[in-house]
Amino acid sequence: MDEIKELYKMNSYQTPLTEEIKNSIPREVWLELIDFLSSVEFIRRLVATEDIRGYAKNKPRETKFYNDGRINVDLTNPHILEDMDFFRERALFFEKHGKYTHLTPNPNPKSTYAEFWKEEQRRWKYGLVRESDGEWIPGQLYFYWNYSPIWLVEIVKTESTGRKQKGERVQKFPKPWLGDYLFYHYMQQARDGGTHGKLLKTRGVGFSFKMGAISPCNMYVYPGTGNPNFHLASEKTFLAGDKGIWGKVVDTLDWIAKHTPLPRMRTVDRAGSTLEIQLGFKDEYGVRQGLLSSVHGISLKDNPDKARGIRGPLIHYEEDGLFPNLEKAWNVNLKAVEDGDVGFGFMLAGGTGGVEGGSFEGSEKLFYNTAAYEIYGIPNVFDKNTRGDTTCGFFWGGYLNRNGCYDEECGEPDVIKALLQILVNRYKIKYNSSDPSAITQKKAEEPITPQEAIMRTEGTVFPVSDLKDYLESIMVKKESFLAEHYVGELVRTGDGKLKWRLNNDKFPLRSYDKDNANREGCLEIFEMPSENANGEIAHGRYIAGIDPIDADSGTSLFSIKIMDLFVDRIVAEFTGRPRLAEEAYEISLRMLEFYNAVANYEKNLKGLFSYFDKKNALFRLCDTPQILKDMQMTKDMGYGNTSKGTMANAEVNKWGRKLQADWMNTSLEDEENPGKLKLHTLRGLAYIEECIKWNSDGNFDRVSAAGMLFILREDRYKRTQSAIANKDKQIETLANDKFFNRNFNQLNAMSGKQIYY
């Protein structure tokens, strides 16, 4: 423990790591906590001691955009905040007196009362600087903290019962959070640089309240018909529903109208999928008068072009993970807020993980590829094992200002306390929930890293959370991990035998990215075929699954995976789109010959069968698996192509995916790797990525090939079961059947025998 304390010296706002805490939580939780402290640079910086983080007075002054003594704010290495109530003077005054000033209302534009409100509006636009140390907050944050009451959950002081603390919702002004401070500074830096913003965040940080305050602030700061504000959503319910942002916009405008002397008259329009509020009124002649600034809510469901041409100080994409065409919608509006190289408007896309129906494919692209979308990118110190060598958008992690885990006076977060709560909750769900997706959902809703926030939480059976963790661990040691693979081709020697040969001109497809310029692909071997004492490969040891292609051109990829049944691991694969379809057929044939394997394939396409028939190699294609007929998923065998492989349909494909997931979730039962699953034996990076990103709308060729493989594996396991038991048994998924795993793996000792099925 002393070593941990020495390694992780922390500031006074953190819960100390003690032996008592270590002993009070599961060992798994403790190890995860240490892992996040070690691998996430932003967390390391947040918990660092005061002398390392420093204070505002220690920071250099900003001179590029301002010349009023304000400091440069480092978003990824923030200083310790002090006395943030200085910036909440009006809110604190209102809480005490029920009004913003004791000054007597006076319509004279030169009165002290009028000057007071002019100064407040100036702060809404330019922010507030503390002369003593240069600390400052942007104008929109000043407005939010002082003029936008929100609903907060406050902890009710009760006697401890060992259960969760009791709370109640109250309407108060926002607390001074470090998270708010950084997020608003991120937006300000983006605007100052003429760029736009992208946010990934945890649930429960009041984001809809923040965005519901920005547009009203803009409406007073930037008057006129040329300055409309827009909130875009995939569906109207995310604008005007119970959790929609529109109600927060109206509440803020109502607050300003009730408690300030600023113009309050407005017109409201609710037509179809569009909502509109304009500050002003129509005179007796029907002429619009007043500020005339406005805010609009637009649903873009099934039509990203609906908002084409909109422009103004704010275009906000609400819950961007739900936009099926986020990239298109973003690019459509990008030129509407720019004039050449000059950005005059600000676009912001924000999303919360774990949203029902969310895919986050577009959101992920915007977050990690900032330059491609004119988004303000900051060093990525938020993911595991990144040190800011790449850029990303702004990430608001679950540990940043979690309720009950921050100092209420200055807003500094107790990161350690927050992480302990998050990890303990995950542990409880992991070992007590019968829903395999529950832990993924929890991680996405309260993410510690951006990768957790963008996990797909529905529509898939794959263990997305575990796969992401595994992929992250691989990327840390990617070079050494891939160095163990054989990359090249199989060539025939003079005696007609096959030999593996290195080919540095060929590259395997190790990413799911469909836009990859290299689509040809090449063979990647993880484990060479195992020979017996006679130099032979046992018949039946290796099986394969194939997702074929038919035409010489197209978007789909040809994919084949080979498994060693004796050790129950995938040992080789090829995925790609060679110039000719027959080139892919030949590659697969050579792989099957090299491993003495038989393959199950999607027989919906006929080209593969014809090629193997021409090569007198139909014996390399399995007969339609008996298990599919037993389960009534396919018709009886016919002749020719109809007797081979598997006719893929929705039911068959679904079962194939389930078999993959069941295998992935199976424990290795390895004393040297306690807690490890079979998914931790996977070596195909793109396959892992496909499983993470799988959804019913996409094209996932590697998953399809693996589905054929695991159906054949299940069929072989059933036959082994029947042979061992010497009687028919109920057909069931065998991936988790210890009896069969044990007995089937015993065949490893028989590698010198010929085994026929």
Report on this structure.
The chain has 757 residues and is an alpha/beta fold. The chain has a domain at 476-727: Nucleotidyltransferase, domain 5. Helices cover 35% and strands 15% of the residues. The chain is built from 26 helices and 25 strands. It has an 8-stranded mixed sheet with strand order 7-8-11-6-12-15-5-18, sandwiched between helices. Strands 20-19-21-24-23-22-25 form a 7-stranded mixed sheet. Helix 23 (650-664) crosses helix 25. It is elongated and about 100 Å long. The two termini are 57 Å apart. Residues 747-757 have low confidence and may be disordered.
Give the topology, please.
Blueprint: H1 2-7, H2 19-24, H3 27-39, H4 41-47, H5 50-53, H6 89-97, H7 112-126, E1 128-129, E2 136-137, H8 139-147, E3 150-155, E4 167-172, H9 178-192, E5 197-201, H10 207-221, E6 228-233, H11 237-240, H12 246-259, E7 266-271, E8 274-279, E9 281-282, E10 288-289, E11 294-299, E12 314-317, H13 326-334, E13 338-339, E14 342-343, E15 347-352, H14 361-368, E16 378-379, E17 391-392, E18 394-396, H15 415-432, H16 438-445, H17 450-453, H18 464-476, H19 478-482, E19 486-492, E20 498-502, E21 523-525, E22 542-547, E23 558-564, E24 569-576, H20 581-594, E25 598-601, H21 607-614, H22 626-630, H23 650-664, H24 685-693, H25 701-725, H26 738-745
Parallel strand pairs: 5-15, 5-18, 6-11, 6-12, 12-15, 22-25
Antiparallel strand pairs: 1-2, 3-4, 7-8, 8-11, 9-10, 13-14, 16-17, 19-20, 19-21, 21-24, 22-23, 23-24
Helix pairs in contact: 3-15, 7-8, 7-10, 8-10, 10-12, 18-24, 20-21, 23-25
